[in-house]
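Sat 14:20. Reprocessing the chain from the morning session after the first attempt stalled halfway. Input below, unchanged.
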Amino acid sequence: MKNTIKSTGWFLVALITCPCHLVLLLPLFAGTALASYFTEYKDIIFIIMGLLFVFALFMGWRKLDPETKKETKKESTTTHECCSIERFKA
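Finished this time. Tokens:
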């Protein structure tokens, strides 16, 4: 449950920081210093928001299912009882 909430939060950050949504965000900040900064340095903002978008998507998917990483690690180190030599000796 906790990981689901965290992954939802990361996906919301990804939704907001998507560079294509910058056109929608500028009218919300109209008349503020932040909007003038966004319009002045649009290229830098696109790059920063793009990197943050990719990072937020990565973290959202990672938090969504952290068990797969642990299960693959366990499978490679455990021996199954059906293939155990001691089982066939008895």
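Residues 34 and 40 are 10 Å apart (CA to CA).
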